[in-house]
Amino acid sequence: MASGRNLKNAVIAFLVPLPSIFFYLSFLNHYDSSKLPSFWSTLWSWCYQHPLLLANAIFFLNVNVLFWLIGLIQSSHWMIDPYWTVIPVMLVHYYATHPLAQYDLWRSRIVILLTWVWSVRLTHNYFRRERWQWGAREDWRFAEMSQQYGNQWWWISFFAVYVSQQMFLIGLSLPLYAVHAVNQPLSMWDLVAIIVCLCGIVIAYFADTQLYEFVSRNNKLKGLGKPVVPVLDSGLWYFCRHPNYLGEQLWWWGLVVFAWSLGVGWTFIGALVNTMCLAYVTRLVEDKMLRQESRAEAFRVYQKTTSVWIPWFKSSPSGNTV
Known about the structure:
- One of its GO terms (cellular component) is membrane.
- By secondary structure, the chain is mainly α.
- 72% of the residues lie in helices and 0% in strands.
- Helix 11 runs antiparallel to helix 12.
């Protein structure tokens, strides 16, 4: 039963992006044809002239609408989570191949490679955490909201789960558009951007791996009937309470440095909104920890002694640096 559902969800996940892929390939093959009917000629002309609007239109129809309908049918909005790690890869290739694209070839290759590395790392972490299952569960925040909104969740989920993700992902990926909209030679700022992006990927990898190993050890202790360790406070988690969030933020702000060096600094808005939202998510996660009686006391001490995001030295519960 479980294996059948896993296979079905995997097939669905591989099929859902095909409408976008086929539509875009058709656009690339026909946008410069002068022998098309007026409707198609007008459509391809619009797609040619408005690359950002086209990305948003495709996202709206293929992710917001199609993913939402599938989520309603399955009573689970699980699919947006694995695709959160895939959509930026699709967007960077879309921006690089759009007919209006202009860019430095080496910068483009570097950014595409970095985006693939980021995506593979995050995808691996997602499936490792989910025990290599497709759609076994949805994000706990969606589950809590479904209970909160009850019978109204079916339509609220369209905005809360999908429209919001469009604003996040399109906004965060704006530097990928900037890299493929301005053709300037590489500079020292590109090196800075590469270093920041790589630091973000490496920090997030080690933080997520340490968290995964911590959870796995606790699960083994539970199976043996032994007490679990209430708080992870070793490795990167010794220096700050959310090193995984720190790594993710460094990644997105590293992309902003690429865009800023090209004179497209306004693309920072996506990373800024993401940082603000991660601040809110941090509060939600910590509130959830404090609601668990077995962890609440230890986590309060952890809060008093350990920095939230920025790695820093430990403090004593009274506030003195250790």
